[in-house]
Write a structure and sequence with these properties.
With 212 residues, the chain is α+β, with helices and mostly antiparallel strands. The chain contains five helices and 15 strands. A hairpin with a 2-residue loop joins strand 12 and strand 13 (181-186).
Length: 212
């Protein structure tokens, strides 16, 4: 749908802000809501209508930056990082010499980063899924660019628990699970072993079965 279509629907009264997918996607930065849905915001401003309903505003305030990205279109910040849905974000590095090949570094403010550049996000595509005993899921796959890759743990309802995004790992296409350790295989032919309860913990463990 083009921005002109947005304007026409709003002017004709056919735009329902309460319908899923129509409310503006926003980030909470320093106590304020910052939109990164420029087409919808520009169209609403052109028509002269309120841009966010009370319901959408209250919902956005209750959700973290990472939750809002994930709930919208399965998006993550396009920055190497470990992102907890309800907590902090960490810089990460692929370190082949580390026990797991994954090293969590210092925390950083993802809200401030996206406030400076709201377009710095990437939709993710799932290439492999592993089911967990608690009904939850592990996902891995690709991002918007060819070298992007991601890993994630979700609840049974597909709510994000944590995700790791890399801009230069290549996509991850297989998952091997053994106990609380998951090993994700990259198409660049290396593996990352991750403690699924807390990816900051060095991984390891006996091999499990690969999920296609």
């Amino acid at each position: 749908m083009s921005p002109n279509d947005y304007v026409e629907q709003m002017r004709a009264g056919r735009w329902d802000w309460q319908r899923p997918g129509t409310a503006l996607r926003v980030l909470g930065v320093d106590g304020q809501l910052v939109s990164y849905d420029n087409r919808g915001l520009d169209a609403a401003r052109e028509v002269g209508r309120p841009v966010i309903s009370t319901c959408a505003t209250e919902s956005a305030r209750r959700m973290t930056t990472i939750e809002r990205l994930w709930e919208g279109d399965y998006e993550l910040p396009a920055e190497d990082g470990l992102y907890f849905a309800d907590g902090p974000s960490y810089d990460v590095d692929i370190a082949p010499g580390a026990p797991a090949g994954l090293t969590a570094l210092g925390p950083f403010d993802v809200g401030a980063m996206l406030a400076d550049d709201p377009s710095r996000v990437s939709a993710v595509g799932v290439l492999a899924v592993a089911e967990l005993g608690d009904g939850g899921l592990l996902w891995c796959g690709e991002g918007s660019m060819g070298a992007d890759g991601f890993l994630a743990r979700l609840t049974a309802a597909r709510k994000l628990i944590w995700a790791v995004f890399f801009s230069d790992s290549n996509p991850f296409d297989r998952i091997r699970v053994s106990g609380n350790v998951a090993t994700f295989h990259s198409t660049a032919e290396f593996d990352l072993a991750v403690d699924i309860d807390d990816p900051r913990t060095p991984g390891g463990g006996a091999p499990g079965s690969l999920s296609p």
